[in-house]
Specification:
Blueprint: H1 2-21, H2 23-29, H3 34-59, H4 64-83, H5 88-116, H6 121-146, H7 152-156, H8 160-172, H9 188-192, H10 194-199, H11 203-236, H12 242-274, H13 282-300, H14 304-330, H15 338-351, H16 357-368, H17 370-398
Helix pairs in contact: 1-5, 1-6, 3-5, 3-15, 4-5, 4-8, 5-6, 5-15, 6-12, 6-14, 11-12, 11-14, 11-15, 11-17, 12-13, 12-14, 13-14, 13-17, 16-17
Subcellular location: Membrane
Keywords: Membrane, Transmembrane, Transmembrane helix, Transport
GO molecular function, one term: transmembrane transporter activity
C-alpha cells in the first residue's frame, strides 16, 4: 500500500502544479482578469485549509481506506470538473472540490502509513512526502511539454483516470485498517476553542505539539516565499539569464526534495532506534541549519554555480525537517487522534505560512526592493526556528 499511497500523493501535487502552470493559457481561454486568477488560486487554498481539520476529525472514525479513497476520488472529480469548465464558476467549483479531496489525502495519508508500517516508519514517511517535490516537478514539466500539443481541457484530464483507479482500489479493499477513534473525540467547536485544544495535552505533549506547529509554520513561510519569488530574485537581483535559471530552479527543487525527504526519513529511523524516548532529534536541527546556510549562500553568492549549490542545500534542509516534525505529531499518545493534529498542523502552517509570505514579499519589495524583502523574509524565520527548537530541546532535557 506504500506504493499506492506514494503515487496517489504524487497525483495530489501534480494536480496542484499542473493547474497553476496552465493558468497563463486559461487567462486568454476563459478571459480571466488578474484579480480572478488570484481568487482562483486562493479558492483551492481556502478549501484545503477548511477541509484539513475536518478531515482529521472525521477520518479516524471511519474506515481509513474508504475515507482516503473518497478523498482521492473527490480531487479527481474536481480536476474533471475543471477540464469540462465552460464558465469561470465551474473552474472555481473544480478547484474547491480538488482542495477538499487533497486535504483528506494530506491529512489521513501520513496517519494511515504510520499505523500500517511496523518498522522504518521514518523512511516510509519520507517516501510519502517525497511526492511533494516529485509531483510538483512532474506537473510543471507536463504542462510545458503538452501545452503546444494538446488543449488545456485535455491536459487537465491526465490525472483523472489514474486518480479514479487509485481511489477505487482503496474504497474496494476488504482487508485493512479499521477506524481508530480517539479516546476523547473532539468536535469542531473544541478545535476552534484553542485553549480547550491545548488543554487536552500534558505539559510535555503540549510542548511537542507547539514546537511542531511553530517550526512547520516558519519553514512553510520560507518555502512559500522561495517558491513564489526565488526565480524573480535570481533574474532581477542576480541578473542570471531567464531560460537558464528557470530550468535550474526546477531541478534544484526536485533534487533537494529527494535528498531532504529520503534523508530525513532514514536519519529519523536511526535516531528513534538510538534514542527511543526523546522526541527531539538532531535531523530537525540539521535541516534548519542547512536551510539557513543555503539561503545565506544564495544571498551572498554572485555566480550561478554558487547560488545553485546554496539553493540545493537550502531546499534539502527545508524538506528534511518535515518528516521528523510530522513524526512528533503522529507519535503523541494523547486524547486527540494523530489525524486531528496533522489536520490542525496543515491549517496553521499554511494559513500563517505560504499563504502570507508571497504577498508579504511583494508588498515589502515595493518599499525596500526585492533584495531586502527576500533577505528579511527568508533569514529571520529560519533563525527564529533554530532558536525555538534549541530552546524547547534544552528545556526538555533539563526536566
Amino acid at each position: 500500500m506504500l506504493i499506492l499511497l506514494f503515487f496517489s500523493n504524487c497525483l495530489n501535487y501534480l494536480d496542484r502544479q499542473l493547474f497553476l502552470s496552465l493558468l497563463p493559457a486559461m487567462k486568454s481561454l476563459y478571459q480571466l482578469s488578474d484579480p480572478v486568477i488570484g481568487l482562483l488560486s486562493s479558492s483551492f487554498t481556502l478549501a484545503y485549509l477548511v477541509a484539513a481539520p475536518l478531515a482529521g476529525l472525521w477520518g479516524m472514525r471511519l474506515s481509513m481506506e474508504k475515507f482516503l479513497g473518497s478523498g482521492i476520488l473527490l480531487f479527481s472529480v474536481g480536476m474533471l470538473v475543471s477540464s469540462m469548465a465552460e464558465h469561470q464558476w465551474m473552474l472555481f467549483g473544480g478547484r474547491a472540490l480538488t482542495g477538499f479531496g487533497e486535504a483528506v489525502l494530506s491529512t489521513m495519508g501520513p496517519v494511515y502509513l504510520y499505523n500500517l508500517a511496523s518498522s522504518s516508519k521514518g523512511a516510509k514517511l519520507g517516501w510519502f512526502y517525497l511526492a511533494i517535490p516529485l509531483g510538483s516537478a512532474l506537473g510543471f514539466v507536463l504542462a510545458g511539454i503538452l501545452i503546444s500539443k494538446m488543449t488545456v481541457q485535455h491536459i487537465l484530464l491526465i490525472p483523472v483516470l489514474p486518480g479514479t483507479l487509485f481511489a477505487l482500489i482503496f474504497i474496494l479493499r476488504k482487508e485493512g485498517l479499521a477506524a481508530i477513534p480517539s479516546p476523547d473525540p473532539f468536535s469542531l467547536r473544541d478545535l476552534l476553542a484553542w485553549r480547550r485544544f491545548l488543554a487536552s495535552f500534558s505539559k510535555s505533549d503540549k510542548d511537542m505539539v507547539l514546537i511542531s506547529f511553530e517550526i512547520q509554520t516558519l519553514v512553510t513561510f520560507v518555502l512559500g516565499g522561495m517558491a513564489a519569488w526565488m526565480t524573480f530574485y535570481f533574474i532581477r537581483v542576480k541578473m542570471f539569464p531567464v531560460s537558464t535559471i528557470e530550468s535550474l530552479t526546477g531541478g534544484m527543487l526536485l533534487l533537494g526534495g529527494i535528498v531532504g525527504m529520503l534523508g530525513g526519513g532514514k536519519l529519523l529511523d536511526r535516531e528513534i532506534r538510538n534514542h527511543p524516548d526523546s522526541p527531539f532529534h538532531w535531523p530537525t536541527l540539521l535541516g534548519l541549519c542547512s536551510a539557513l546556510s543555503g539561503v545565506l549562500i544564495v544571498l551572498a553568492g554572485n555566480s550561478l554555480v554558487v547560488c545553485c549549490f546554496g539553493l540545493l542545500l537550502g531546499i534539502s534542509g527545508i524538506f528534511l525537517v518535515f518528516v521528523p516534525l510530522n513524526w512528533i505529531l503522529l507519535s503523541r499518545n494523547t486524547s486527540l487522534s494523530p489525524a486531528v493534529l496533522i489536520g490542525m498542523s496543515l491549517l496553521v502552517s499554511h494559513l500563517l505560512g505560504d499563504l502570507l509570505s508571497p504577498s508579504l514579499i511583494g508588498e515589502m519589495s515595493q518599499y525596500w526592493g526585492l533584495s531586502v524583502a527576500v533577505e528579511i523574509t527568508l533569514v529571520i524565520p529560519l533563525v527564529l526556528a533554530i532558536i525555538l527548537y534549541t530552546g524547547y530541546a534544552r528545556r526538555f532535557r533539563s526536566v
